[in-house]
Amino acid sequence: MGADGKMDVHLDVSTAGYAGRLEVLEGPTGRRVRSEADRARIAAESLMPGVQVAAVARKHGASRWQVYDWRRRLRRGQLALPESMAPMFAPLMVEETSAPQRTTQSTPAKVEIVIDDMVIRTAVDLEHLAQVIRAVRASR
Question: What is the pTM of this model?
Answer without folding.
Answer: 0.44
